[in-house]
Each structure stands twice: as structure tokens, then as C-alpha cells.
Specification:
With 253 residues, chain A is of the alpha/beta class. Chain A contains 8 helices and 10 strands. In chain A, helix 3 packs across helix 4 and helix 3 runs parallel beside helix 5. In chain B, the strands form 4 sheets. Chain B has a 6-stranded mixed β-sheet. In chain B, strands 14-15-20-17-19-18 form a 6-stranded mixed β-barrel. Chain B has a 4-stranded mixed β-sheet with strand order 3-7-8-6. The chains are: A alpha/beta (253), B alpha+beta (796).
Chain lengths: 253, 796
């Protein structure tokens, strides 16, 4: 089943009375359980595509279907609910509420949608499991300024996972991290994908993109090409990097 | 780069700069206009006193029996440099009928004097002269009358309207020629009003009238206090009151209250401006961390960098203060306009300079604080700044509460409270402002509640549980009663009249008699008013300690008399009565407002029928009835229209009516003004928070929070601030009751328990404030809907 399907998706900004067509008739389909990367030069519309397709931004034209449901026809509140309960988001900058601890930041979206004490108990259990899985249990009570970038990004992943989303949208999730931290974060995303979570990720990093099953190349607001790499395995990592590099070079990357 | 940063900063933080500008403008308006208003009133009062020629002391004598003796005594006093006498004639408000132009005499109603005693006076007096609008001596022709602005406004009168006066059966008609400025009788606070005529008209009215006249002596003395003490020793029985010139300034205190209130608010607004300034500066500096580093690296001095920020904020503050100064001129003029109706203000051009000084002071103070706030620039090293402060030292542990530990708290409520606990400084000024505003709202409210309470009734020596009261009991054609026997007869007569119509009532009244007492062995003598009971429950009193005098030789004094003269229960004092000296033992003391808290009580066992009675207090009617005082008073008004039937409140109003009316008139606009200001502050602060926290708000929106929930989160902060401010404000208000209001009420001579309507003061008003603040915050957070994911870049 299609987790996401965009048909003739357009996004236009008007800047200083000038029309800027950032997305031009984008068509793409992402299957449930797939891990998809989006690459392209700066200003090509990668992030806009991610924000528009996830409902964070409104499309100027076209259709987006999320598990068959037409998103463009939903009200703002319905889209918000969908993002809160069925989608997860990881950003390049580790945006979190500065007055909350790591743990509270993680459980915040789930608490917002929970009403009973029993639900909160369940959320706490889930948060503990997620944090243990992501290796950040020891920093649960820390402030966001007291942990490393990698830990913070893993906390963001935990937050994106707290509501058991069907899909995670990641915008340059390793952009602000060093090599070691990037590797850790990607390992976690791959693990989540293996467990069945669909992931759509925007990245500049070939090593990161090579961990995806499929990579789209976007240029001037259009998907110019896509590459199927298949499911990620650690032992084939080098070959996948090389293959992806060659493909990107052909596209003028 | 210098100019670029400045330009970028002004544009980038447009909203914050506008909010800062607005706060500075508002605070300058309030400060400048209020300070100049207080200056105008205080200076105006001096001018008014000079123009009206206020004497050092004014003594009011009831009737003219002791006129000769009093003048002889004045002549004998070497410290009295000059004196003058003026007669005034008392008149009931019911006997003064204003007839407006185009209105028939039959439809005209008696004048509304708001409980104040009305007097007829004349032009040409030497002291406390009534003046015309320009401050000149009043000149009136025959058939003309001058009325004070308060009376004219309350009754909707204009110059040219007519006033009909009924005096001893004769009717006189006069035309209002002038709105007069009358320093003592023109102020609503004095509880007295005067209609001024030319001397010939006055004489024509008063001749053959049975109305009570009072004699007003004004005299200048080199030692006013010594003169008054000497006067008290003389045992003049008709001296009803003595007023020192300092009392005049008390009458005009109310004209300065609103201005004083605005000064407090102005100071609060400056504090909030400083808070905004501080946030704005630290926000800008964090944003420009790298630029600051580069400037330091290329060798710019600290002060040169500091200047960039100082110039910007100086510009915002200077423009705000200048606009505030310009706006304060018409607002200040509006404030003094109401005062100028009653007063001769004289030259008030220097008030403009005072406004300007206030505005400059705001600029200097805020810019000075700005210099302090930017000091941390010096601590930033070049390399640290270039690295964008990445060493982590900039961060401080801020965490307040733990969400997962708050099992019963909603996420939104939690976030709101947590934000306040994490940023206490940010919300402290807001909390203090709400707190002060609440206290400023409850103080007049509690004052009014107290004025309308049974406690107040009892302090005026009236039994709050009495069935009803009568103002005057003279029968038609009777002269005013001058001894206790007349009073007793009148009480029996009315009881009989009432019994005939089926009312089984018992009447009692307090005869007001001045008695001179020798208080100690050194021979200190003083004259006190005695509220001597006649009939059933003639004189109501609640004793603070000891008990009521039960025997002929027992006396009770008010607490003030006891304290001033170091008297104790059991002490003996000597009274000079008409039949000679009489010794009394003090059996107790009480606290009430009779004669400004200086009075005494005797038992009816002692016969005072030969003493001169100054008058009598309200007559108490005791009877079994299911009706309320209001219903019974209305019913008896129909049955016995010859008497003026009163409720306990009306009896109190006759003494404090104008003060209460002034308070009541002020309370609503003051509450509305405070609410509007608080709402404005909440609105601007919330706008500032939205601007500063755009990134966080965008992030919440991106992870699926609805705009409504984000707005609720922001509003919840204000809810918590209001709740916390109420937690502090309620005890603060109680402390104000205890230490301020009690003292204010004590000026009238007695201690009383401040009365509070808890539901109104501590539930209704806080809820009104909360709703107002919520509405303002909801409006301010409207922009949350327009925040989108691109705003996340602003997140910290």
C-alpha cells in the first residue's frame, strides 16, 4: 500500500511580487515500510517537498494522499492531528522546548494527545523503551543544553517515535552532527525502518542517502530521476555508496 | 558593519521595537501628565487659598448666643492679629427647588445635595471668600445667586436657571448668575454646600426666619494651636467646630488620587519597558554573537560595540518619550480641567516644564539601564564570539518542573507554569503589575463596602438594627429645640402620633451638649461633646473596654480622649455644669466618629436639662416590624410626610455622603482604566513573547500541535501569572486594609474594622481581571496561526 502519494504537486512562493515556483508538478509514491531519501542541489526544493508532503506547509496545487487519505482536503486541525498522531519529524537543528528536560521533550507530543492517567503510564513505558533503544536513558533528566548534538538528535528521533507514527520525515537529520554521531543516528533510523516505520529523508550526505532503499534526485522543483538501492545491509555499505555516487555524478551533482 | 547591524536590528526586531516604543510612550504619558497634574493641584491650592483669603483658623458657632462673649475673648488674645465674622443660615435641601429653563415650577424637584448640609451665605465675606470663575471676588446683584459647580452638575443646572427657596413659609426666587469657586463649601469632600446671595437678599430671607443660623469666625493668629487650646479652656458651649487652614489641603486630596495612581502605573510600565529592553538586548546580542566577535577581532573597543546597541535603544526610547511628552500635554490638560472647575489654579505654565523634565528623566533612566544591560558585551571574548558561543558556558540550568511527575496536570497548564518557573525574572514585573493593579482596585472597593457597612453605622453612634430613623423632629411652627425637655416632649408626641396610626414604636435620641471637663490635677480643661441619651436607646454605643456609665457620677470617654489625656478607667474627672462642678468616675471607653473621635457619654441619671443643647443626633425608632429600613422609611414617609424618615445608610450618608459619592464616582472609571491598562500590558507582553519564541512555536506546530493548543499554552502562562499575582495580592490587599485604610478612616477620629465583601473583592474582581487578560492574550496570540515551519530557524 502507498504510504504517501503525491500527484502534480506544486508549491509557489510570491517573494517581492515575484512568483517562485519551488515545486513543479512533482509526482512520487512511497510504499509502506520504505526508506526513501531525497537529494538535490541547494535550492532545488528538497525541504519544501518534505514540508509540503507532510502537511506542514500547504500545497499550491496537486494532490497528496497519506495512506489513501486525501490530505489537501483536510482542515488545518485534522492535518495537525495527523501530524501529531501518525507522523514523526526529525529536523537538522535539534528543535526542542528549552525549558523542558530531554525526557519531557520526548513525551510532550504523546502527553498532548493522551487524556487518561493510564495512557500517560503507557507513554512513560514507551518513552523508556525508546530511550533505552536509542541509548539516551542516562540523559533523560538533563537539560537540552547539557547533552551532545548526537544525543539531542537521538532524543528528537525518540520524540518523533513516541506516538508510534506510520512515517517519519527527516530533514537533514545528520546535518549538524559529526561523523560518529551521524553514524549512530542513521543506525537508529535504519533500525526503525526495519521494524516497519516508513521514512522519508532529505539529505546532502551520500553516506546517509545510501542507507535508503530508494533515492530521489530533485532539481528545479522536479524529480529528475530516482535510484533503487534495495534494503540496506551493513556489509554492502561501500558498494551502495559507490553506486549512489556514480549515479549522482551522472546527474551533475 | 556598524550601520548595517543597527539597520538590520531595527528592522529584524520590528515588533519588539514597536512594543518597547509603546511602553516607553505610555509610561511617559502617565508620568509626565500625572506629575504635572499633582503639581498644578498643589500649586493651585496655594493660589486658591491666597485668592480666597483663607484664615489660619475658622471657628463655627451654633447660633449667636455667645457671639458677644466670643468676640470679647478674641479681642483679649494678643496673638490674634485680625478676625472677621460671617453669618450663614442653614436650609433643608427639600426647601431649595431648582427650576430649569422651560420647566414648570410644579414639576420641579428639591435640589440633590448628596447628603451635604446646605447654607445660605452672602458676598463680601473677608475669609474663605467665594470667587467667580476668574478668581475675582463675587459680585452679585439683587435676585441673583451663585452656586458651586458640584451642585450645578449634579442637578443639571446652568447659569440662567432659577432657584426657589422656601424659608419660614415665604418663597424667594433667584436666578443662577455665576458658577462660584468656593474653597470650603464648594468641595464635595467638605460635606457642606453654600448658595451665595448679595447681602440685601440674604438679609431679606433670613429676617424673621426660624432657620438655624451659624456664625463663622475666621482669624489669623501668630500661634494658631495656642489660640485653639485657649479657646477650648473657655468653655464656649456653642462652639461646634474649629478648622485649621491645613484642613483645606485635605479636601483636595481626592483630586490628586487619580494622578497618583497613574504615577504608580507609569512606574510599572517603565519596569516592564526595562524588562523588554533586557530581553531584546540579550536576544540581539545572542543573534549577533559572531558579528560581535568579528568586531572584537578587528580591534574595535568594547564601548564602540556597545554604542551600536545604545544608539538604537536611545533612539527608540527618545522618540517614545518625546511622543509621550507631546501626548501628555493634552492629557494633563484634560486632568486639570476637572480640577479647575472647583479651583482657581493660577499660572500653570511651569507644569509643561515638569512634564518635559519627567520625559527627559525617562530617557536618562532607561538609557542608563541599557548601559548596564550591555555590560556583558565586555565579557565576550573575540574567539568565543566567532565560535558563536559554542563552549556551552552561555547556558544555565533552567529547568523548573518535570512533566512526567505531574500526573494530574494537563500538558498545557504544565507548560505555562513551567515557563514561569524557568523565567521568573521575565514574569516578575508582570506579576507585580497585576498585583498592584488588583490592590488599587480593591482598596476603593473595600472603602465603599466599609462606608456602607453596619460597622460604619455604629461608628456614627447609630444602632444598625433600629427599625428606622428620623432626621428632624420639630413640629411645624416649632423653633429649633434647645434643651432636653423639648426633645423629650417631641419624642412622646411622635410616639403618640405613630400609635394613633397603629405603630407601636419607642423613640430615642441623643442630645448634643458640650461639657467642659477638668481632666487632671494640673487643671487641664477641655470641652467635649456629650451624646446624652433621651428616651429608649437614645444613644447607641459599643464599648471597647469597660462599660457604659450607669450612675449619675459615671462617664465614658472616646478612646482618643483617653489616649490624648492619658486617662484610665477608674480615673476621676470634673465637669463644669451650669449647676456647678460635678465629679465623674470613668467607667469605660469607646471609639466613634462623634466630634472627630473626641466625645463623652453620660448616664441619663444625671439631669442635663439646664444645659444648652447644641442640637440632637438622628432619632432612633424601635419597633417590631418585618419590613426593611428602606420599606419602613418609605411607608412612614407616606403616613407622616412632615418628618424626614431615614435608613441607617442615609443617616451615615448625611455625614460622609459627598466622600462616598466621590469614591463611588471614581471607582468604576478607575477600575475600568486599570483593567484596560492591564489588558494592554498583557497584550503587548504576549505579542513580545510570540515574537521572541516564534521558533519554539513553529516547532510545536510542525510536530502536530494545533494553533489553538499553542495559543492556549501561551494564554496559560498569563493565567498562572494572574493566579500567582492574586495569591500575593489578596494578603497585600488585606495588609492595605489593616495599615492604610484603617489609618485613613481613623482620620475621622475612630478605629474601625475594614469591611470586605470576599465574594466581590476576592472572586468577582479577580475573575473580571482574569477574563480581561485572557481576552487580551487571546487577541495577541492570533498571530500564532500565521507562524509556519520556516520560522523554526529562529529557534534557540
Amino acid at each position: 500500500m502507498n504510504a504517501l502519494k503525491a500527484t502534480d504537486l506544486c508549491k509557489t512562493y510570491i517573494v517581492n511580487k515575484r512568483q517562485n515556483n519551488v515545486l513543479r508538478n512533482v509526482n512520487l509514491e512511497i510504499e509502506e515500510g520504505e526508506m526513501v531519501g531525497v537529494m538535490g542541489p541547494s535550492g532545488s526544493g528538497k525541504t519544501t517537498l518534505l514540508y509540503t508532503i507532510s502537511g506542514m506547509d500547504t500545497a499550491t496545487a496537486g494532490e497528496i494522499r497519506f495512506f489513501g487519505e486525501e490530505m489537501t482536503k483536510l482542515s488545518a486541525n485534522q492535518v495537525s492531528d495527523m501530524r501529531l498522531k501518525r507522523m514523526g519529524f526529525v529536523f537538522q537543528q535539534m528543535y526542542m522546548l528549552k525549558n523542558l528536560s530531554i525526557y519531557d521533550n520526548i513525551v510532550l507530543p504523546a502527553y498532548q494527545s493522551a487524556s487518561s492517567k493510564a495512557q500517560r503510564r503507557e507513554i512513560n513505558e514507551r518513552a523508556k523503551v525508546l530511550m533505552a533503544k536509542l541509548g539516551i536513558s542516562e540523559v533523560a533528566d538533563n537539560d537540552i543544553s547539557e547533552v551532545s548534538g548526537g544525543q539531542l538528535q537521538r532524543a528528537c528521533i525518540a520524540r518523533s517515535m513516541i506516538n508510534n507514527p506510520k512515517i517519519i520525515f527527516a530533514d537533514e537529520p545528520t546535518g549538524a552532527l559529526n561523523k560518529q554521531n551521524s553514524k549512530e543516528v542513521m543506525k537508529e533510523l535504519n533500525k526503525l525502518n526495519e521494524e516497519g516505520t516508513t521514512i522519508m529523508m532529505v539529505t546532502h550526505d551520500v553516506k546517509v542517502a545510501s542507507r535508503c532503499e530508494r533515492v530521489f534526485y530533485i532539481e528545479d522543483g522536479n524529480i529528475r530521476d530516482e535510484m533503487h538501492l534495495g534494503k540496506y545491509t551493513e556489509d554492502m555499505a561501500r558498494e551502495r555508496d559507490r553506486e549512489l555516487n556514480n549515479w549522482l555524478m551522472k546527474l551533475g551533482w | 558593519m556598524w550601520f548595517e547591524i543597527l539597520k538590520k536590528d531595527l528592522m529584524k526586531q520590528k515588533s519588539v521595537n514597536i512594543i518597547l516604543f509603546l511602553f516607553i510612550t505610555l509610561s511617559t504619558i502617565f508620568l509626565a501628565s500625572s506629575v504635572s497634574n499633582i503639581h498644578v493641584v498643589m500649586n493651585g491650592l496655594k493660589t486658591f487659598m491666597k485668592y480666597a483669603n483663607v484664615s489660619d483658623v475658622m471657628v463655627v458657632l451654633g447660633g449667636e448666643d455667645e457671639k458677644e462673649a466670643f468676640e470679647e475673648w478674641i479681642e483679649s488674645r494678643s496673638e490674634i492679629t485680625e478676625y472677621a465674622y460671617e453669618q450663614l443660615c442653614q436650609i433643608k435641601a427639600d426647601d431649595v427647588i431648582p427650576v430649569k429653563e422651560g420647566m414648570s415650577e410644579e414639576n420641579a424637584n428639591p435640589i440633590d445635595a448628596a447628603g451635604a448640609s446646605l447654607y445660605l451665605g452672602y458676598t463680601g465675606s473677608k475669609y474663605a471668600k467665594p470667587l467667580d470663575g476668574e478668581g475675582n471676588d463675587l459680585m452679585l446683584g439683587s435676585g441673583e445667586v451663585a452656586v458651586s459647580p458640584g451642585l450645578m452638575e449634579r442637578n443639571g443646572l446652568q447659569t440662567g436657571d432659577k432657584i426657589q427657596i422656601e424659608i419660614s413659609g415665604k418663597i424667594f426666587t433667584y436666578q443662577i448668575a455665576v458658577r462660584c469657586k468656593d474653597i470650603l463649601f464648594g468641595n464635595e469632600m467638605s460635606g457642606m454646600g453654600r448658595l451665595v446671595f448679595c447681602k440685601e437678599d440674604y438679609d431679606a430671607m433670613v429676617l424673621d426666619s426660624t432657620n438655624v443660623t451659624i456664625g463663622v469666625y475666621g482669624f489669623n493668629s501668630t500661634e494658631p494651636k495656642k489660640t485653639l487650646e485657649a479657646m477650648n479652656r473657655q468653655n464656649f458651649q456653642s462652639v461646634a467646630n474649629s478648622i485649621e487652614s491645613s484642613l483645606y489641603s485635605m479636601l483636595y486630596v481626592f483630586d490628586m488620587i487619580v494622578a497618583a495612581l497613574l504615577i504608580v502605573i507609569g512606574i510599572c510600565l517603565i519596569l516592564i519597558s526595562l524588562m523588554i529592553l533586557r530581553f531584546s538586548l540579550s536576544f540581539t546580542m545572542e543573534e549577533n554573537y559572531r558579528e560581535i566577535g568579528v568586531m572584537k577581532a578587528i580591534g574595535m573597543r568594547n564601548f564602540s560595540i556597545q554604542k551600536i546597541y545604545l544608539v538604537k535603544y536611545f533612539a527608540v526610547v527618545a522618540v517614545g518619550a518625546f511622543v509621550g511628552f507631546l501626548l501628555s500635554i493634552p492629557i494633563g490638560a484634560l486632568m486639570t480641567e476637572s480640577v479647575s472647575k472647583n479651583m482657581v489654579l493660577g499660572d500653570s505654565t511651569d507644569s509643561m516644564w515638569l512634564s518635559l523634565i519627567c520625559s527627559v528623566a525617562v530617557i536618562i533612566f532607561v538609557t542608563g539601564m541599557c548601559v548596564l544591560f550591555t555590560r556583558k558585551l565586555k565579557k565576550i571574548s573575540a574567539i568565543e564570539a566567532i565560535r558563536n558561543g559554542g563552549n556551552g558556558e552561555r547556558y544555565q540550568r533552567k529547568r523548573g518542573l518535570c512533566l512526567y511527575k505531574r500526573k494530574y496536570m494537563g500538558t498545557i497548564s504544565f507548560l505555562g507554569l513551567n515557563d514561569i518557573l524557568c523565567n521568573t525574572k521575565r514574569y516578575l514585573v508582570l506579576l507585580i503589575t497585576f498585583c498592584i493593579s488588583f490592590v488599587l482596585i480593591t482598596v476603593p472597593l473595600n472603602t465603599l463596602t466599609t462606608m456602607e457597612s453596619d460597622e460604619m453605622v455604629s461608628k456614627f453612634s447609630l444602632n444598625p438594627d433600629a427599625a428606622v430613623y428620623i432626621e428632624t423632629i420639630e413640629d411645624e411652627g416649632d423653633d429649633p429645640y434647645h434643651n432636653t425637655k423639648d426633645l423629650e416632649k417631641a419624642l412622646r408626641r411622635i410616639e403618640h402620633e405613630m400609635a394613633e396610626k397603629g405603630y407601636d414604636a419607642k423613640l430615642g435620641v441623643g442630645a448634643l451638649i458640650f461639657c467642659q471637663f477638668t481632666l487632671n490635677d494640673e487643671g487641664k480643661t477641655e470641652t467635649f461633646l456629650t451624646n446624652y441619651p433621651i428616651g429608649e436607646n437614645g444613644s447607641y454605643c459599643e464599648y471597647a473596654e469597660g462599660e457604659a456609665p450607669k450612675l449619675e457620677n459615671e462617664v465614658a470617654f472616646s478612646k482618643k480622649v483617653m489616649e490624648d489625656n492619658h486617662l484610665r478607667i477608674g480615673d476621676t474627672v470634673t465637669a463644669q455644669l451650669s449647676e456647678g462642678e460635678h465629679k465623674f468616675i470613668i467607667t469605660g471607653y469607646y471609639s466613634d466618629y462623634m466630634q472627630l473621635g473626641k466625645s463623652c457619654r453620660l448616664n441619663p441619671a444625671i439631669d442635663l436639662s439646664n444645659e444648652v443643647m447644641m442640637g440632637y443626633w438622628k432619632t432612633t425608632v424601635d419597633m417590631d416590624t418585618e419590613l426593611t429600613q428602606r420599606q419602613l422609611a418609605d411607608q412612614l414617609k407616606q403616613e407622616f410626610p412632615q418628618y424626614e424618615w431615614l435608613t441607617a445608610q442615609e443617616a451615615v450618608n448625611a455625614n460622609i455622603g459627598s466622600v462616598k459619592e466621590t469614591m463611588r464616582a471614581m471607582q468604576f472609571p478607575m477600575t475600568v482604566m486599570l483593567c484596560v491598562l492591564i489588558m494592554l500590558i498583557a497584550l503587548l507582553m504576549m505579542k513580545l513573547f510570540v515574537v521572541q519564541e516564534k521558533g519554539q512555536l513553529a516547532m510545536l506546530g510542525s510536530i502536530g500541535w494545533r494553533s489553538h493548543d499553542i495559543r492556549m499554552w501561551l494564554m496559560m502562562r498569563m493565567v498562572w501569572v494572574v493566579i500567582l499575582s492574586m495569591v500575593f495580592a489578596v494578603p497585600l490587599s488585606m495588609l492595605c486594609n489593616r495599615f492604610i485604610l484603617t489609618k485613613v478612616f481613623a482620620i475621622m477620629g475612630a478605629e474601625l474594622q475594614i469591611q470586605v465583601e470576599p465574594l466581590k473583592a476576592y472572586v468577582l474582581y479577580p475573575v473580571v481581571l482574569l477574563v480581561g487578560i485572557m481576552a487580551a492574550t487571546y487577541f495577541a496570540t492570533g498571530s500564532v496561526r500565521r507562524i509556519n515551519t520556516s520560522d523554526m530557524k529562529i529557534a534557540e
